[in-house]
């Protein structure tokens, strides 16, 4: 396992509770859209076993051509030890990244793609949208729907409806409005439905989509294959 040590280059205050940490790009480090990485602090591997309190899975919200690794996360007043450390970090501080992998790359199967997210889950989809806008080959259209009760909607410079590119972006602040929109999307018999959010959010979306006749193979989750069966019990090779 290769561990890349790098430094925080810049911190963006997206909203009162959400920050994006832009990391310097280590030589040889690369990734694709939809990737997550293990993000850790100094001392995480100092003992015989890794200190899991100093490690988190984080989605990467940038693409390699942007020349930085973006990590967007919500940090509340009452938070974990990990988030508390992260909140106090500044540009120049060092962090580690390793075991980078994408569970949800953009599929190019000549179908409509629906990106369903809650809150900062949108960070996972930012690179997919950028990838689509730069090259739409094999994708009929992309529709993003994000629910965030805080109304501090993220990345509105990217998530902006663009009819010319067959891209629509919708932000809502209530689950009721959100799920009504999802029902409308579910009428697409061949659509691909990407979902990112809490486990509860995933289960609610899957129940709704499956209830509307969407096949399990059309549902894509930002989960490792061995974890997908928990959400899609009869899934095989999803």
TrEMBL record:
One of its GO terms (molecular function) is oxidoreductase activity. It comes from the Bacteria. Residues 1-107 form the FAD-binding FR-type domain. This is Dihydropteridine reductase. It comes from Planococcus maritimus.
């Amino acid at each position: 396992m290769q561990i890349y040590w790098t430094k925080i280059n810049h911190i963006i205050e997206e909203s009162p509770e959400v920050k994006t940490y832009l990391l310097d790009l280590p030589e040889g480090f690369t990734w694709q859209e939809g990737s997550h990485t293990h993000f850790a602090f100094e001392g995480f591997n100092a003992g015989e076993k890794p200190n899991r309190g100093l490690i988190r899975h984080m989605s990467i919200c940038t693409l390699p051509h942007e020349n930085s690794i973006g990590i967007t996360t919500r940090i509340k007043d009452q938070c974990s030890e990990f988030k508390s450390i992260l909140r106090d970090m500044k540009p120049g501080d060092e962090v580690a990244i390793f075991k980078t992998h994408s569970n949800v790359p953009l599929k190019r199967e000549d179908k409509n793609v629906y990106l369903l997210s809650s809150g900062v889950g949108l960070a996972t989809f930012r690179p997919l949208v950028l990838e689509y806008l730069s090259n739409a080959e094999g994708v009929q259209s992309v529709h993003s729907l994000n629910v965030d009760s805080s109304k501090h909607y993220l990345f509105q410079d990217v998530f902006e409806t663009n009819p010319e590119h067959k891209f629509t972006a919708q932000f809502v602040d209530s689950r009721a409005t959100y799920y009504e929109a999802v029902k409308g999307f579910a009428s697409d018999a061949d659509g691909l439905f990407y979902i990112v959010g809490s486990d509860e959010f995933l289960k609610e979306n899957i129940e709704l989509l499956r209830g509307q006749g969407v096949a399990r193979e059309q549902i894509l989750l930002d989960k490792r294959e061995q974890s997908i069966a928990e959400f899609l019990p009869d899934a095989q090779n999803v």
